[in-house]
């Protein structure tokens, strides 16, 4: 199959490319490297011994996107490109709406021009907002609490309307829970710019000595040990879910939202303990106030993914920490300042 991958150089995109190429698909990546490095694509080439097409451009540039899609003429599109920092989305809401919402509309218009009717979209569990009940299933009300989440909810709605209006269209909206970990080789992984916002990359940087101590945002939640509980999903499992979703889109029509998680909650303290086991290093922590907007617990109902995609997570938190540590300890500064190796 010919698969057009926006944001393919990013964290989740690069892991998905490995599996797409290994499965024999022909791939074209569209990325402006706003939050990624071309080195990640070089590493993917090395890992798979396969090449891919690359268009370096911005999804807000409708003409460039339309040219790229019509030239490649894909059978399916996987849409990762977007901005994802919750805090930044409150400071720069228009940038987030332009990139995540207008960018998605540009992509659908380009697909129309190319006659492509299948899309897999990177959505997020953040569209659910506050939990009315747990685990979150796909029928849970959609009520995001920040601009980033609203861009994802809007893009989901737009893709749903497009799918209804387009004959034979098929869209899978993958609602990721908390993607972590790295490829087992340790050659590709998550490379956040600046101070990591998310727990696992922060813990990794403490373990490797780049940061002194992890601040635990509150230990008075109603959870097993008082710290926040999340559903961490191995990025390699997540990549496999994309391949399953492409297959699903190829054989169905309509628009389906599907959770991608393990269904298991892990607390901050449990994750720190797992990382200490994986790295063999102590992780210094200090408890500070709760982070504004955080919820106590979030985890997925996974039955729809099993039924519709025939997919379930294979890896546990120890696998996630072990591969994260392999990546972090062998790439202390991530992909570095653009060197190719
Ligand atoms: P990432 O930042 O590593 O990857 C996003 C990619 O999109 C990067 O390569 C970036 O350069 C590219 N990009 C950004 N803006 C662009 C633009 N205007 N034009 C072209 N390319 C652009 O992020 P990720 O963690 O791999 O996330 C991928 C997708 O999954 C995003 O849409 C994100 O919102 C979603 N998601 C991520 C998480 C997570 O925790 N990582 C959770 C839920 C959903
Ligand atoms: N967290 C923390 N310290 C950090 C970053 C995160 O204690 O430096 C906690 C956070 O309060 C939450 C959990 O770790 O309970 C996961 O946070 P993350 O930002 O990774 O995911 P999200 O909250 O967006 O699901």
Structure description:
The structure is a single chain. This protein has 341 residues and is an alpha/beta fold. The protein has a domain at 2-180 and 232-260: NAD(P)-binding Rossmann-like Domain (Rossmann fold, 3-Layer(aba) Sandwich), CATH 3.40.50.720. 41% of the residues lie in helices and 17% in strands. The chain contains eleven helices and 13 strands. Strands 3-2-1-4-5-6-11 form a seven-stranded parallel β-sheet, sandwiched between helices. A two-stranded parallel sheet has the order 7-10. It has a two-stranded parallel ribbon with strand order 8-13. Strand 2, helix 2 and strand 3 (53-56) form a beta-alpha-beta unit. The chain is globular, with a radius of gyration of 19 Å. The model has no long low-confidence stretch (mean pLDDT 96). Bound molecules: nicotinamide-adenine-dinucleotide and uridine-5'-diphosphate (UDP). Residues 178, 197-199, 202, 214-217, 228, 230, 268, 291, 294, 298 line the site of uridine-5'-diphosphate. Residues 178, 197-199, 202, 214-217, 228, 230, 268, 291, 294, 298 line the site of uridine-5'-diphosphate (UDP).
């Amino acid at each position: 199959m010919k698969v057009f991958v926006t944001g393919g150089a990013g964290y989740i995109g690069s892991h998905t490319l490995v599996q797409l190429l290994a499965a024999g698909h022909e791939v074209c990546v569209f990325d402006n490297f706003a939050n990624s490095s071309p080195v990640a694509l070089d590493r993917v080439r090395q890992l798979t011994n396969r090449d891919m097409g690359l268009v370096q451009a911005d999804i807000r540039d409708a003409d460039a996107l339309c040219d790229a899609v019509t030239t490649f003429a894909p059978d399916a599109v996987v849409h990762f490109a977007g901005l994802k920092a919750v805090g930044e989305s409150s400071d720069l809401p228009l940038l987030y709406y332009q990139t995540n919402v207008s960018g998605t509309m540009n992509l659908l218009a380009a697909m129309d021009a190319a006659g492509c009717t299948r899309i897999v979209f990177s959505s997020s569990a953040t569209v659910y907002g506050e939990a009315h009940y747990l685990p979150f299933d796909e029928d849970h009300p959609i009520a995001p609490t920040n601009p980033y989440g609203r861009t994802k909810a809007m893009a989901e709605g737009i893709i749903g309307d497009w799918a209804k209006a387009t004959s034979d269209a098929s869209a899978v909206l993958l609602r990721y829970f908390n993607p972590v970990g790295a490829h087992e080789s340790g050659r590709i992984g998550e490379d956040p710019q600046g101070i990591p916002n998310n727990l696992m990359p922060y813990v990794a940087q403490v373990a490797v000595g780049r940061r002194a101590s992890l601040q635990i945002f509150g230990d008075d939640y109603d959870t097993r040990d008082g710290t926040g509980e999340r559903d961490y999903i191995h990025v390699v499992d997540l990549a496999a879910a994309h391949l399953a979703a492409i297959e699903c889109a190829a054989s169905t029509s309509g628009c389906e939202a599907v959770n991608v998680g393990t269904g298991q909650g892990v607390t901050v303290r449990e994750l720190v303990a797992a990382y200490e086991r994986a790295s063999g290093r102590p992780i210094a922590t200090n408890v500070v106030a709760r982070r504004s907007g955080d919820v106590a617990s979030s985890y997925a109902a996974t039955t729809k993914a099993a039924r519709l995609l025939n997919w379930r997570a294979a890896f546990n938190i120890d696998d996630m920490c072990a591969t994260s540590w392999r990546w972090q300890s062998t790439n202390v500064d991530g992909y570095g300042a653009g060197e190719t190796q």
